[in-house]
Design a protein that fits this description.
mainly alpha; Helix Hairpins; binds zinc ion; rod-shaped; three-stranded mixed β-sheet; 3 strands
Length: 237
């Protein structure tokens, strides 16, 4: 292998490593944001469970007040009934008292249903609370791990970049300029390997002339994507 190929491959190794590290680094903020979003959603679930429980408690209290009111009404009728003199008036009063009792019994049935609902709602709240508390504990660790990863990636990128100048200095300016243009596209392999007449970057077939130049280890670019080419295949293969 000619020296210029080895030198350019060494440079490409550094650059592709930096590109990979930068790609990984770019994903970290979204990952942190997702953790926050998920946690916020969990918090909302807990709030809703709490509100559901409280609103049932409120309904139960409302029924309690209604029962108290109806009992007072029954007492009032009872007192009044003792004072009426006419028989049909007395009957009407007893009838009113009976109505109130039926009403109270209806409210009490509602209350029982509400009690069951409250128990179920409280269970939902308890399990949501457990999920939330566990999450609350792990979220900091998860975010710290990502922050740590972010720092490591940044340090590794800086290290790679600082070593790059020395590696790049070995590449001739005209090759470096073509290579840099391809690297700047930020995708694919700037210096692509040719295998069985196919460009390793765009995967299209090269002309026999191009393949010939590549085998002779001359500076050659892909006929389709323009990327620089080299091969590990020998002329006889
Ligand atoms: Zn190509």
């Amino acid at each position: 292998m000619k020296q210029w190929i080895a030198d350019l491959l060494a440079l490409q190794e550094v650059d592709l490593r930096v590109r990979g590290l930068k790609t990984r680094l770019s994903l970290v903020p979204d990952e942190i944001a997702k953790i926050d979003r998920d946690f916020e959603a969990e918090k909302n679930k807990l709030t809703h469970a709490k509100e559901a429980s409280l609103s049932i408690e409120l309904e139960i209290k409302k029924r309690e007040a209604e029962i108290k009111e109806q009992n007072e009404l029954a007492k009032k009728y009872q007192i009044q009934s003792a004072m009426v003199k006419k028989n049909d008036e007395y009957k009407a009063m007893m009838n009113e008292i009976e109505n109130v009792k039926v009403k109270i019994s209806g409210i009490e049935t509602e209350q029982l249903v509400l009690m069951e609902k409250l128990e179920a709602a409280r269970n939902v709240f308890k399990s949501e609370e457990k999920i939330f508390k566990d999450r609350e504990k792990s979220i900091l660790d998860e975010k710290n791990e990502l922050k740590e990863l972010e720092g490591k990636l940044q340090a590794e990128i800086e290290k790679q970049i600082s070593s790059r100048a020395e590696v790049a200095a070995k590449v001739t300016p005209d090759i470096l300029s073509t290579y840099s243009r391809m690297l700047g596209k930020n995708k694919g392999t700037p210096f692509a390997e040719v295998h069985q007449g196919i460009c390793g970057n765009c995967h299209l077939k090269l002309t026999p002339q191009t393949v010939n130049s590549v085998r002779k280890e001359m500076k050659a670019c892909c006929d389709n994507c323009g990327h620089l080419l080299y091969t590990n295949e020998t002329t006889s293969s």
